[in-house]
């Protein structure tokens, strides 16, 4: 077939290319780490206080149901209590998880203090550079579909109370200059080489 692309409009119809429009950048108090972090990184970078909050929310919702039943009985019978408390626990568990992911994601975006996460990110990415691994994982998607995935989940944490959405896709569009990782890896490799040479000479 010629250079004419097969598009959704039919065979032989040239595919029009849309101009690239960069994503909106937030003005934040702290440096950006990742504008669309993978859900695995979000959970892995969460702080102990986030997990404590998750547990507290999980326990608070059924406790609230218990207090309501204590001071304002529904008189539904004891048989209704087990499913009611199972539902309350599930609601608390889900709400706590959403709170954890929101707190962690806001640090990635630079909305909250994120020195710990910046150090973790630099260490993780530099180690990947040294091993020759892709920074953000391997993706079988085209650049176009990676962009679609990014636009679906980027900044979704600000709308999580209405429609929870997370990034489950490895893509290459994270809003940061990755050159810093390669520069740091180069500095570390040079330092390691200097140390090794000095040890051999000694």
Characterise the protein shown here.
The protein is mostly helical. It has one domain (39-167, 180-195). It contains six helices and no strands. It has helices at 39-44, 48-71, 81-108, 115-131, 143-153, 179-201. The radius of gyration is 24 Å and the shape is elongated.
Helix/strand layout:
Blueprint: H1 39-44, H2 48-71, H3 81-108, H4 115-131, H5 143-153, H6 179-201
Helix pairs in contact: 2-3, 4-6
What is the 3D form? elongated
Q: Name the structural class.
A: mainly alpha
Average pLDDT across residues?
Answer: 87
**Largest beta-sheet characterization:** none
Helix content: 40-55%
What is the tally of beta strands? 0
What's the N-to-C terminus distance? Answer: 66 Å
Rounded to an integer, what's the Rg over CA atoms?
24 Å
Strand content: under 5%
Low-pLDDT residue spans: 1-11
Number of helices: 6
Q: Give the SSE order as H and E letters.
A: HHHHHH
In total, how many domains does the architecture comprise? 1
């Amino acid at each position: 077939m010629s250079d004419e692309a097969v598009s959704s409009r039919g065979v032989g119809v040239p595919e029009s290319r849309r101009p690239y429009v960069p994503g909106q950048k937030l003005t934040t108090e702290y440096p950006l780490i990742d504008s669309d972090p993978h859900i695995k990184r979000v959970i892995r970078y969460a702080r102990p206080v986030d997990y404590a909050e998750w547990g507290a929310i999980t326990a608070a919702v059924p406790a609230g149901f218990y207090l309501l039943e204590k001071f304002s009985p529904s008189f539904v019978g004891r048989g209704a209590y087990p499913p009611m408390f199972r539902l309350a626990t599930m609601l608390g568990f889900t709400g706590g998880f959403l709170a954890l992911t929101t707190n962690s994601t806001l640090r990635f975006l630079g909305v909250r203090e994120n020195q710990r996460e910046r150090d973790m990110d630099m260490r993780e990415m530099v180690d990947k550079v040294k091993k020759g691994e892709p920074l953000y994982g391997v993706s079988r998607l085209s650049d176009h579909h990676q962009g679609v995935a990014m636009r679906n989940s980027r900044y979704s944490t600000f709308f999580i109370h209405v429609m929870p959405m997370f990034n489950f896709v490895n893509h290459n569009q994270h809003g940061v200059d990755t050159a810093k990782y390669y520069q740091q890896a180069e500095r570390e490799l040079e330092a390691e080489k200097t140390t090794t040479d000095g040890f051999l000479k000694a």
